[in-house]
Amino acid sequence: MKIIILFVMLGVSLPVVHAADTFAGVITETMCGAKPHIMFKGRTPAECINLCVARGPNVYALSDGTHVMKLSDQKTATKYPAQNVKVSGTYDEKTNTIRVASIEPVDGK
Questions:
Q1: Chain centre to alpha carbon of residue 86
Q2: Which of 23, 38, 77, 80 has the greatest count of CB atoms below 10 A from its CB?
Q3: 35-71 per-position pLDDT tens digit
């Protein structure tokens, strides 16, 4: 209690902790976003997404059909390219990035 009062007296604001939100969509990448993944002929959408990310500067993202939001957790996203997922985390509007707490496939695979 004394620490909080001291912060208030000094004009220091404490960080606000936001509860995680849930976002549903498809794992994609930032170049094609919600468009069909057909850049690499003869490849599946998942292979195309992985190739686009590997070649850079594209990163894994979540498309909800309207918006494409970058994902802070690129490692976990590699498991689910072109799959429907549920992402738990907080959205940073300035960077258009979801700070990922978890990514889970919707269909349970």
A1: 10
A2: 77
A3: 887 778 899 999 999 999 999 999 999 999 999 999 9
Residue 12 neighbours by CB under 8 Å, 6+ apart = none
Per-domain residue ranges of the chain: 16-105
Residue with tokens 């309207």: 66
Reading the block at residue 60, the tokens are: 């894994």
Nearest to 30 by CA among 88, 89, 87, 77: 77
What class is the 16-105 domain?
Answer: mainly beta
pLDDT tens column, 66-109:
999 999 999 999 999 999 999 999 999 999 999 999 999 997 55
